[in-house]
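Thread: Newbie trying to understand structure tokens

Hi all, I'm a second-year student working on a class project, and my supervisor (Dr. K.) asked me to get a predicted structure for one chain before our next meeting. I've only ever worked with sequences, so writing a 3D structure as a token string is new to me. If someone could post the tokens and maybe explain what I'm looking at, I'd be very grateful. Here's the chain:
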Amino acid sequence: MKVGQRLFLSVLPAVLGLFLVAALAYWGRYERTAPELVILLAALAAVVSLIVSWRNTRYVVHRVERLAGQPASTTRLDALRDLGVQVPNTHDGHPDSDELDYIEATVAGLSSEVTRAREKAVRQEREALARAQDIEGLLQAVTTRFASRTEDAQLPLHILLSSPFGALNENQEEMLGAAMTAVDAINTEVRELQKLLQLHRGELSIVAQPIDLAGLLRPTLAIARARAESAHVQMRAEISDTASRVIVDAVHAQEALTSILADAIAHTEPGGDIEVSARDGDRSHVRIGITRQPAIAISRGAMPLELRLARKLLEAQRCTITFDGAVTVVELPSESTSHVER
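---
Reply by user tm_fold:
Sure, no problem. This is what the structure looks like when written as tokens:
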């Protein structure tokens, strides 16, 4: 039974008393006698009402006492005062207020603590956001400086490799070639980091438009085949002619898919095979599956920067990528999607 129902039942004695007073007023006149049945029913109702009222009152009192706990000690009151809560005064160790005052004080203290915790969380969130923005600005400045420095190094290395000032021996050419390759790799990774920062800030423009699946994969597969040939890996591609058109930003999607295929080639043993299958998946996606055989076991815990950028580029276009052992699956939104976010 709910507390409200118990309190309403506690009102029954007053209602019964009203009816008894009315009955006494009627039968209390001269030459009028109250029927015995009415007297019995009134007595029975009074007894039942008294029992119900007593039980409900005891129940409410016990619940209030349990909620209030033991009489507030000095330590407890001092703790509440430290929280800035107004608490009842005490005289000679005995509280001058009832349990509800202490319950109210405790609830007020808890409410104050919750408010302080929320304010602290908001303050910490703002501080974290400010730190993140500072770090983003620092990374942007560093990557810009790195890109400028690598461009400054590329030109002299290119001139030295072309050897206009005299012939280079084999060792010199090999060292300059390694330096040029390293500088090119640094420049590529710095630009990938810059694009990743632009994605994080929402500054990269992505315009999704319908495009034929074969047309989307044609340049990506051409680059992948060249890399697979250099790595002595056989690559086969099966593109469905009846697949729905996909709704992506062609340039960014091709960049992401090229990085994913390059990663798959790099983690396939020489002499192995890579199979690319692209066809309609469910009603709203086109599925591209990349299977490596035999595959080199890799851990995706520390994902390379190139693959992180590919994942972010795909996610920004409502695409998904999953890695399951030797199988990588990319799902692109198809033109048949009922709701397309432009």
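A couple of things are worth pointing out once you decode it. Residues 10 and 169 are 108 Å apart (CA to CA). Residues 90-95, 338-342 have pLDDT under 50 and may be disordered. Feel free to ask follow-ups in this thread.
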